[in-house]
User: Which sequence fits this backbone?
């Protein structure tokens, strides 16, 4: 995995991320049914990864992800 990172998700589907080691990438996110799907331009072999999330009030987790709306 990529370890701890900070990501920014825009309403148009773009995403950018920076790891704790200052490595950066960008890509796209979408929702497919009840799953969040992310495809990075370089990381994770450029493959789309989808995971189910659960939560409320702007905080969601699942599949090793923890997402907080700021």
Assistant:
């Amino acid at each position: 995995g990529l370890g701890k990172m900070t990501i920014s998700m825009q309403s148009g589907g773009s995403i950018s991320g920076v790891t704790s080691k200052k490595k950066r990438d960008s890509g796209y996110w979408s929702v497919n049914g009840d799953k969040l799907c992310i495809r990075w331009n370089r990381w994770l072999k450029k493959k789309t990864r989808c995971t189910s999330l659960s939560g409320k009030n702007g905080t969601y987790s699942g599949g090793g992800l923890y997402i907080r709306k700021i």
About this structure: The longest strand covers residues 24-32. The chain has no helices and eight strands. Strands lie at 5-9, 14-19, 24-32, 35-40, 49-52, 54-56, 59-62, 65-68. The CA atoms of residues 3 and 19 lie 7 Å apart.
